[in-house]
Amino acid sequence: MILAIDPSVSRTGWCKGHPGGPVQTGSLGLGSFGKELGPTLNALEQWLEGALDGVDIVFYEQPIQFGKQSFDSRRKLYALGALIELVCYRRRTQVREVNNQTCKALCYGSAKMKSAEVKERGVGLAKAWGFEPANHDQADACAVFLVGAREWFPADFQTWVDRKAALARKTGELLI
Asked: What contacts 126, CB < 8 A, 6 or more positions away?
């Protein structure tokens, strides 16, 4: 079982399931605590402890630094990544960091896609693979899931490729 996480200071997206599916998606609001880091980390840790039940490996999107991000936001993103690593270490669950651009290139078709475009088009692009995300945070977690499946479970990843091709044929859309 895979748990894929798109850590965010506002709403963390997740995707959980077997490498070839089915999966569930969701998002977790971590609250708005200004510069305080403790409540944000506490909220993620409490959720993660339950979310790890039955999970064999966790993939999470690496914290990246956007030019306009505040120091406090960057600090929180790196802390969220560190917390995911720590909780997985304590639970003896494998954990891997996944590159943001690799996720965009695989799921969305372009590593250079801007954040605003991901927010606008990400849900639809993730649905093209057979996921059912409700928002862009969940769509990003689906992208993390795909990268993890491709690298660790290639035979199961092929199921997603086949699913995407079948959906494209059914809807008459071009594959990205």
From this structure: 107, 133, 138, 139, 142, 143
